[in-house]
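R.M. (postdoc): so does anyone remember the format we settled on? I'll just put the structure tokens first.
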């Protein structure tokens, strides 16, 4: 089960203005109470057999020890979920899946349902990764249906969004990101919004070694949080964890995590190596 995102103090929000509130607190006081527990999730994509998965995760568990102030999640391929679950039992590391279908069951060859994921002890599931949007033509409607199904369970969705290189070069980020949010999240209630994890993964940064600079990433994370603020009740947007993904490594994670609105990472390549993944977790703790 997902822990309360506000349980651990991670970073304080910089208030844009100060003034007394109804409760007599200053906005500064309120802002200082806002904290979001960091999340570091490893998306293993289509890598690792069961034996390889167990070896990696055994090492991860040993390296991260008892870190409590970061939600640590590994997302192996479906075929290794059971093998990884065996190793994770009793550890602080949680299990996630990379995809799920939007129906409870049925004639959907090759698909997997939410109850099947729960059966393996999954707590998280990635929805709408750009590789699924691109290679498997996942539409915004499908992503919305998947989110709706996931919200009917206790699974925590990690919704991926991000602009293409073409959109970035055409200076269309400010339009593409809100429109992806609008299409995926427009029907969300406040409790659903506060539960979701959003991963900002610029497509041009995925697997390319070309990481977004901390400033550039922060700008988009701020844009995402502003959109959430405009579409939810007061305070809800401040609870949402927004992860950065795209060529995250132990070398660049430290600077990225210092940004106000970066609450952790969705790591691809570097999560396949236990040492690299654990270093990213440690930098986020
Ligand atoms: P890389 O970290 O390999 O760039 O992948 C990012 C990603 O797609 C995580 O979901």
């Amino acid at each position: 089960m997902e822990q309360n995102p506000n349980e651990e103090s991670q970073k304080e929000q910089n208030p844009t203005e100060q003034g007394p509130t109804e409760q007599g607190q200053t906005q500064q006081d309120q802002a200082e109470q806002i904290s979001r527990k960091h999340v570091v999730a490893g998306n293993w994509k289509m890598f690792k057999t069961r034996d390889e998965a167990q070896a990696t995760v055994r090492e991860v568990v040993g390296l991260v020890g008892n870190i409590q102030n970061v939600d640590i999640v590994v997302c192996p391929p479906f075929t290794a979920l059971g093998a990884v679950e065996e190793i994770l039992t009793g550890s602080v590391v949680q299990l996630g899946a990379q995809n799920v279908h939007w129906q409870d069951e049925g004639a959907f060859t090759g698909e997997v349902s939410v109850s099947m994921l729960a059966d393996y002890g999954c707590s998280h599931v990635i929805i709408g990764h750009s590789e699924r949007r691109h290679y498997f033509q996942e539409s915004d409607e499908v992503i919305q249906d998947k989110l709706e199904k996931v919200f009917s369970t206790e699974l925590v969705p990690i919704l991926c969004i991000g602009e293409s290189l073409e959109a970035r070069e055409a200076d269309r980020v400010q339009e593409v990101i809100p429109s992806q949010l609008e299409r995926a999240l427009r029907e969300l209630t406040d409790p659903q919004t506060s539960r979701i994890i959003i991963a900002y993964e610029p497509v041009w940064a995925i697997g390319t070694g070309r990481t977004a600079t901390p400033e550039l990433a922060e700008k988009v994370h701020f844009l995402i949080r502003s959109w959430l603020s405009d579409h939810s009740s007061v305070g809800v947007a401040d609870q949402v964890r927004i992860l950065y993904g795209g060529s995250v490594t132990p070398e660049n994670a430290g600077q990225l995590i210092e940004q106000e609105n970066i609450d952790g990472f969705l790591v691809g390549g570097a999560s396949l190596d236990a040492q690299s993944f654990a270093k990213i977790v440690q930098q986020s703790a």
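R.M.: ...and that's the designed sequence above, right after the tokens. Also worth knowing: The CA atoms of residues 216 and 256 lie 10 Å apart. The chain has twelve helices and eight strands.
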